[in-house]
DNA sequence: CTTTATTGATTGTGAATGACAACTTTATGC
DNA sequence: GCATAAAGTTGTCATTCACAATCAATAAAG
């Protein structure tokens, strides 16, 4: 733990207190998300599939799981099928992913990465790692593991509740 | 700390690993945000100013700081002035907030809560507290303080970086 | 004073998101 | 075979958010 972990100062922004939100998980999670997402978008702005958390996750999944189906991606993203379908559309348009019909189920699609998509996936991994190192440098080294464990547990429990 | 705090299981969703995102703060923050926001929206769906994190924050601020200016709210929300102006528009339309011209600066506005807005603010406080208690019940009691401290520190450092 | 720059706020516009309903095609269960 | 469920697509709609341009008022500079 970092040395100053025990102090719990009132959060004040531009001289203002934020009422009940000061003690609300939701406030901090939402605020962090908006800045983190904006930062990630900036870092990926030069890529053909920039903008939007769904696309990068989908691309990595296709790269890791040849033949994966859109509905599986939808499950990971917690999105509905239309939203996921449009994400796949973009990946196909960008030449990163190829659609085939799943051999065992003619309703379903099997998605495959292209050479372009594979290169893109590698770039994305680098960008994500860079963001973790650079953007989150404000999290003291000593706190990282613990913060990550808590986030993971929160995430897992939230998903359990969700499904 | 809760007793199982030391295990660090690989995150697997629907049988799939999530590549580099498995170790990325950004993934968990984004995922948590989308579910928390959806949950909060549901809880507020019956209110006249439902939907959107900006409105509830703005209303609470006006309730707490009579005469506050839109630009101050924009600073807290980390939004630009047009976005904030439209949030105030909605609050005024809903009869929750009243605009006046700031006496000391004729360009600026001074915002004041109405009786309706004050009641609404109280309802919102209850909803936020209820969500903290009910939605985040998956965070073990023993972890709450620490998780909150870490979120606050992350938030403060992020804002420092932002400004 | 008068000119210039800055600040507070509004309007317009465009891109993107995400959710929901309706529909087509294929599988599955009885 | 027939009804039901599942996979994907299309259409639509409401929101959101950011950027540019504009207007009015203040502050600063000469």
State the end-to-end CA separation of chain A.
34 Å
Low-confidence stretches of chain A: 1-5
Strand count of chain A: 4
Please give the order of strands in the largest beta sheet of chain A. 1-2
Largest interface: A-B, 69 and 69 residues
CATH superfamily of chain A: Winged helix-like DNA-binding domain superfamily/Winged helix DNA-binding domain
How many structural domains are formed by the residues of chain A? Answer: 1
Rg of chain A is 19 Å
The major β-sheet of chain A equals: 2 strands, antiparallel
Q: Give the mean pLDDT of chain A.
A: 89
What fraction of residues of chain A sit in β-strands? 5-15%
> At the first level of CATH, what is the class of chain A?
Mainly Alpha
Number of H- or I-type helical stretches of chain A: 6
Which of globular, elongated, flat, extended, rod-shaped describes the shape of chain A?
A: elongated
CATH topology label of chain A: Arc Repressor Mutant, subunit A
Describe this structure in words.
2 copies of one chain form a homodimer. With 163 residues, chain A is mostly helical. Chain A has a single domain, classed as Winged helix-like DNA-binding domain superfamily/Winged helix DNA-binding domain (Arc Repressor Mutant, subunit A, Orthogonal Bundle), CATH 1.10.10.10. In chain A, 58% of the residues lie in helices and 9% in strands. Chain A has 6 helices and 4 strands; from the N terminus they run ββααααββαα. The first copy, chain A, has a two-stranded antiparallel sheet with strand order 1-2. The first copy, chain A, has a two-stranded antiparallel sheet with strand order 3-4. In chain A, helix 2 (53-64) packs across helix 4 (81-93) and helix 3 crosses helix 4 (81-93). The interface between A and B is large, with 69 and 69 residues. Chain A binds a DNA duplex (30 and 30 nucleotides) through residues 51-52, 54, 69-71, 79-86, 88, 102, 105-109.
